[in-house]
Fold:
Amino acid sequence: LEELMLGLRQKNGISWHLIEKKLSVDQQLFFKTKIAEFVALGYIIDDHSRFWLTSSGRAVENEIVVALLQ
Structure:
């Protein structure tokens, strides 16, 4: 949880490689779906290598983290 919250706030974000390493295939699918939803809402930037919060996303960071950890 802490790693997720800190990584989302940083410009270099969170590596998709890290997600693939730490999560099961089913968890990865859920996570990628949620990230895509937040990208569409303008809350996250995903460059297909890493992802991070936009300024709008920082305003709702807690809600994003909760949604990702369901």
Q: What stands out?
A: The first helix runs from residue 2 to 9. Strands lie at 14-15, 44-46, 50-53. Helices lie at 2-9, 16-22, 25-40, 55-59, 61-68.
